Amino acid sequence: MDASTSVGAYFALKLAGEDPDAAHMVKAREAILKAGGIPAANSYTKFYLAMLGQIPWNDTPAVPPELMLLPS
Length: 72
Prior knowledge:
The protein is mainly alpha-helical. It has helices at residues 3-15, 23-34, 43-51.
């Protein structure tokens, strides 16, 4: 299971109004946690969750500013 895709889909369903206590949401949450949860998600997923206030910014990976100076 891809933790990033699953976390994103789960959060999208919550935003759409799905009840977190519904059987399918509980099953999805348990599978996500078994796969490592948010810490196992990629940096893009963590960035979007932080943008939406779901996780603290400190939980997102830092990008070194020198990266912008690399040649194309």
